[in-house]
Amino acid sequence: MRADRAVQRLEEMAGDLRGCALLDPAGKVLAASGDAERSADWHDAAADLLAAADGARDEPAAHVHVATEDGEVFAIRHRGLTMVAVAERFTLASLLVSDIRTVLREVTAPA
User: Fold this and answer.
1) Which of 18, 30, 38, 40 could lock 3 by a disulfide, CB 3.0 to 4.6 Å apart?
2) Would you say residue 111 has pLDDT above 90?
3) Rounded Cα distance, 83 and 24, in Å
């Protein structure tokens, strides 16, 4: 339930958001926006994105941001969880990153 609420919260906060997913430490999708049957797509895309980012360093990337002509992708890790978000091109990156971090802090806060 908390994972679903985290996705809903980010959708409420970020106007330029196309979709997002919350993943556990193993990369399993806990919740995602859109069609529930597409959670495997989120898993595979997040795994590829994080593997590429991690391969560029000797340690796991805590924050990933990729911008293309078609849109922007963000992945942020926090306390074992990862939130991946896809936004419209030219979104205000600093604001979306702040929103993602806020949601991750909320979902990982002690109950």
Assistant:
1) 30
2) no
3) 9
